[in-house]
Write a structure and sequence with these properties.
Elements lengths: L31 H13 L1 H9 L10 E6 L2 E6 L2 E2 L1 H14 L3 E11 L2 E8 H17 L7 E5 L4 H13 L2 E4 L6 H11 L3 E5 L2 E3 L2 E3 L1 H14 L6 E5 L13 E3 H6 L10 E2 L3 E7 L7 E6 L1 H15 L9 E3 L6 H9 L8 E4 L10 H9 L3 E4 L1 H10 L2 H4 L8 E4 L6 H11 L6 E3 L34 E4 L12 E5 L9 E2 L3 H9 L6 E9 L5 E6 L4 E3 L2 E3 L1 H9 L4 E11 L3 E10 L8 H19 L7 E4 L13 H8 L16 H11 L1
Parallel strand pairs: 4-17, 6-7, 6-8, 7-14, 8-11, 11-12, 16-17, 16-18, 18-19, 19-20, 29-30
Antiparallel strand pairs: 1-2, 3-13, 4-5, 9-10, 14-15, 15-23, 21-22, 22-24, 24-25, 26-27, 28-29
The structure holds 5'-O-[(S)-butoxy(hydroxy)phosphoryl]adenosine.
5'-O-[(S)-butoxy(hydroxy)phosphoryl]adenosine (WT7) binds next to helix 10, strand 24 and strand 25.
Length: 668
């Protein structure tokens, strides 16, 4: 077996035909034949396909060429000028639709009268982005300069992003759950001098002290010779903050007095729109560079097709991600607003005040499109079916999943308990680097299979190859690559050309390496098998993490599972499984625990084969995850191999106490 190949052992045979369209919202693409014909055309003539698509948006000046491709550098809509804030906001106002809802925001705290809800229209967004844009200019922010945004999930976060886009500043949003050290690293890397923040952010009834973190970061930065010239603070939680005169500005006071005249700056299609830092599995975070025109077109079109958006049809779109991740950039703000469907923003946690908060929100706002992550879905499963069952979810039309491979059992649960067997599920595969959807079902066209992200989006030439770039036959696992440029592809890693070349363009010549292992089934459907760095080599069989984990999750006692390789005397590498159980299945004593471990081992053998049977199973209450919900398998690897000290970077870990807990269980 050649390097790069991965063996597939999971057998999933369930298929679901696309349902009939919701009333008043016909499917944009309504048959698999239509999808295939359109996809074929988009691959044969990408410039024709994307050029035509881009005409649906506003450009100040047209492009002269759709694509200029000098591997690995793409330029899209060359010479064209546009503004993404104009397309998201001003265009709707100019069309006389300024009074329509653009953002529906719900705060976390909830009193007897319910939670605080704010509805912002396109006219509101136009006024507020203009004011903040003027204020930023007043603070000396110039076109192309990086503004750092570190806020909770309040409407002003979206406004801050759009205001930057409006005046041609580049934004760098840092997730509000990150520490002050994360701010230091990112501000330094981006040479950013202006920070927009909040006094605090509500999270599970507590206040996260954002301004305090910014203050600490600014002092640390000063020590390193970097001066932050302005910090703009929105008062959200009313927690006490310290104030540095001259540097600190109150958001409300600053924008209240600012001019409402602040035209959208015509931006070159290839001007930078934002930087977004992604941790990667090791090393310092990478500042992923995204530019304006191609990103704008890709977000607008994927939002429309994948979620089946129709302006004026009463739809309400909700993506549960934080704007600190690319999912929030692309599918709360930049893809949704230009489609003129209101976008829901929720401030807080899914289990506050109770485990049914999300279902309450869907019922309250009559959400039609719901987009969330597998980690959340597995938590919902663990919390129990009774929570969604209590709520009216009949408004839902399309369900989405993103962030990790979704285990087939989680997919089935999502379909039954949230979609009530009516709604298609779009399992969208993409990355911070790809900007937008790459492999995904289209809800009215693609028959779906639980656990598969199905087929490539228009213009996306995805393939499974070995290290030499040779396409592998169907059902053989290998490296997931993209062979042609796409409009929203990253343009680089900020300040590190070599890392860009090494990470994405070196291992397989001439192709973009996604870093995921995957295979295609006999129908050509893509199945993501996990990150290639996590592949486990058992007696010469290279197994992806996803399939073994899904076999475990398909047992009724299991809520979530993570598998990693560990040293094994005979096999070289064995499989270690970390498993969280559903509450009703927690074993009472050691004997019961041993019995359940044996049962689970047999279950995996039966489901996918003896080769994948874990050599060690450990029950745990929690798994180490990043703040965006991805399991950090490299930490589990260190624990499973009995490493004395974790020497790796743990700054993105959600809960530091988890490592100690996992070790304690080791000794128990
Ligand atoms: C990695 C990208 C995509 C925006 C949020 C995460 C994994 C993402 C899926 C999916 C299987 C998925 C991949 C990918 N991933 N979506 N539908 N099925 N795996 O962005 O943090 O840049 O992570 O997330 O491993 O490479 P990101």
């Amino acid at each position: 077996m050649s390097q790069g190949n991965i063996e597939s052992v999971l057998r999933e045979t369930r298929t679901f035909a696309p349902p009939s369209p919701p009333p008043g919202a016909p499917w944009h693409i309504s048959s698999i034949e239509e999808y295939r014909a359109k996809w074929k055309r988009s691959i044969e003539d990408p410039e024709g396909f994307w050029g035509e698509a881009a005409k649906g948006l506003h450009w100040f000046t047209p492009w002269s060429r759709v694509l200029e491709w000098n591997l690995p550098d793409a330029k899209w809509f060359v010479g064209g000028t546009t503004n993404i804030c104009f397309n998201a906001v001003d265009r709707q106002v100019e069309a006389g639709l300024g009074g329509q809802a653009a953002i529906i925001w719900e705060g976390e705290p909830s009193g007897p009268a319910g939670p605080e809800v704010r509805r912002l229209t396109y006219a509101d967004l136009q006024r507020e982005t203009a004011r903040l844009g003027s204020a930023l200019k007043g603070l000396g922010v110039k076109k192309g300069e990086v503004v750092t945004i570190y806020m909770g999930m309040v409407p002003e976060l979206a406004i801050a992003m759009l205001a930057c886009a409006r005046i041609g500043a580049v934004h760098s949003v840092i997730f509000g759950g990150f520490s002050s050290q994360a701010i230091v690293d990112r501000v330094l890397d981006a040479h950013s001098r202006v920070i927009i923040t909040c006094d605090g952010a509500w999270r599970r009834g507590k206040v996260v002290p954002l301004k305090e973190n910014v203050d600490a970061a600014c002092s640390a930065l000063k020590g390193q010779g970097h001066e932050v010239s302005a910090v703009v603070t929105l008062k959200r939680c009313g927690n006490a903050v310290t104030w540095t005169p001259g540097r600190d500005h109150d958001y409300a006071a600053l924008t209240r007095g600012a001019s409402e005249t602040c035209p959208c700056a015509p931006m070159d299609s290839e001007d930078m729109l934002f930087l977004l830092y992604t941790s990667g599995s090791t090393g310092k975070p990478k500042g992923i560079v995204h530019t304006t025109g191609g990103y704008m077109v890709h977000m607008w079109l994927t939002s429309k097709h994948v979620f089946n958006l129709h302006p004026g049809a009463g739809q309400v779109f909700w993506c549960t991600a934080d704007c600190g991740w690319v999912t929030g950039h692309s599918y709360i703000v930049y893809g949704i607003l230009p489609n003129r469907v209101p976008s829901v923003m929720y401030e807080g946690a899914p289990n506050f005040p109770a485990e049914d908060r999300f279902w309450e929100i869907i019922a309250r706002h009559k959400v039609t499109q719901f987009y969330t992550a597998p980690t959340a879905i597995r938590a919902f499963m663990k919390w129990g079916d009774q929570h969604p069952a209590r709520h009216d979810l009949s408004s839902l039309q399309v369900l989405g999943s993103v962030g990790e491979p979704i285990n087939p059992e989680a997919w089935m649960w999502y379909r039954r308990h949230i979609g009530r067997e009516r709604c298609p599920i779009v399992d969208t595969w993409w990355q911070t680097e790809t900007g937008g959807h790459m492999i995904t079902p289209l809800p009215g066209a693609t028959p779906t299979k639980p656990g598969s992200c199905t087929l490539p989006y228009f213009g996306v030439d995805a393939a499974i190859v070995d290290e030499t770039g040779r396409e592998l036959p169907h059902t053989t696992g290998g490296l997931l690559v993209i062979r042609k440029p796409w409009p929203s592809m990253l343009r680089g890693i900020h300040g590190d050309r070599q890392r860009y070349l090494d990470t994405y363009w070196s291992r397989v010549k001439g192709m973009y390496l996604a870093g995921d292992g995957a295979h295609r089934d006999k129908d050509g459907y893509f199945w993501i098998m996990g990150r290639i760095d996590d592949v486990i080599n058992v007696s010469g069989h290279r197994l992806g993490t996803m399939e073994v984990e899904s076999a475990l999750v398909s047992h009724p006692a299991v809520a979530e599972a993570a598998v990693v390789g560990m040293p094994h005397e005979i096999k070289g590498t064995g499989i270690a499984a970390f498993v969280t159980l559903r509450p009703a299945h927690n074993p009472h004593d050691r004997a019961a625990a041993e019995l359940l471990k044996k049962t689970l081992g047999e279950h995996v053998s039966r489901e996918i084969g003896a080769i994948a049977r874990p050599d060690m199973i450990r029950f745990t209450d929690v798994l180490p995850k990043t703040r965006s919900g991805k399991i950090m398998r490299r930490l589990l690897r260190a624990i499973a191999s009995g490493e004395e000290k974790i020497t790796q970077d743990t700054t993105t870990l959600e809960d530091f106490s988890i490592l100690a807990k996992l070790r304690e269980q080791d000794e128990a």
